[in-house]
């Protein structure tokens, strides 16, 4: 019997295939990353250290692209808990560590006096932060980059900002920034910020961006505190 898949059926079939393929790609990718991290411990030569860092940073990128692709094909069920925002930013920075080091980026953590505990899906929010951080790294020049991560309180909510001194954006790019598949990169997919925005909106949070060509870009996030 011939049957045509429609609407949700078609969507979920595609989603299922995508998830299986993603899983199959992730396993060997994890092995590559772990092996490179393991080798990096014993290697002495600067040049070899750099090469291993390129392997690690590249596999982190592929992993992020897979996450972006997957997250755009499935409904995002959120798993809420109380999350310390400073710790979460530290973890996101940790995931981008190799890319940050490769470009010798100066990371400045300007965390608020009172730590924000927010009500969030920890893993999803980390992905959102990581997307913003990776974009910032891409926009900055090697050896001259400065990344500032700031947390604080605004109107009884938690405010987070991520500032880079990278290329910045023209009005035209700023208008399309969150659109699916908008990218200016040769190896970009253009789904990172689409997913990031969805994640923040699913948290009933706010996301906005201020940018100036040649000066840099700041992403502002505002999220609700955790209820006690
Ligand atoms: P991708 O990173 O795959 O290109 P994104 O959705 O993450 O997709 O970003 C879309 C585009 O927005 C980028 O290609 C880039 O042109 C622009 N962009 C995002 N963040 C920044 C930033 N911090 N500085 C300059 N441009 C940015
Ligand atoms: Mg991106």
TrEMBL record:
Superkingdom of this protein's organism: Bacteria
Stated name of the protein: histidine kinase
Histidine kinase domain residues: 20-227
């Amino acid at each position: 019997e011939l049957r045509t898949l429609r609407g949700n059926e078609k969507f979920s079939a595609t989603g299922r295939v995508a998830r299986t393929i993603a899983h199959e790609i992730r396993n060997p990718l994890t092995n590559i990353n772990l092996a490179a991290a393991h080798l990096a411990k014993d290697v002495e030569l600067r040049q070899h250290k750099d090469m291993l860092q390129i392997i690690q940073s590249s596999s982190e990128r592929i992993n992020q692209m897979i996450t972006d692709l997957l997250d755009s094909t499935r409904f995002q069920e959120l798993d809420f808990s109380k999350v310390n925002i400073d710790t979460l930013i530290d973890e996101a920075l940790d995931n981008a560590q190799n890319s940050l080091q490769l470009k010798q980026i100066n990371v400045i953590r300007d965390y608020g006096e009172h730590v924000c505990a927010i009500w969030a899906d920890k893993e999803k929010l980390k992905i959102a932060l990581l997307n913003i951080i990776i974009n910032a790294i891409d926009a900055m020049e090697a050896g001259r980059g400065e990344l500032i991560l700031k947390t604080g309180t605004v109107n009884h909510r938690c405010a987070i900002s991520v500032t880079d001194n990278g290329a910045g954006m023209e009005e035209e790019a700023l208008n399309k920034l969150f659109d699916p598949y908008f990218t200016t990169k040769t190896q970009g997919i253009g789904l990172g910020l689409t997913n990031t925005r969805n994640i923040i909106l699913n948290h009933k949070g706010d996301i906005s961006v201020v940018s100036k060509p040649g000066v840099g870009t700041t992403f502002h996030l505002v999220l609700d505190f955790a209820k006690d």
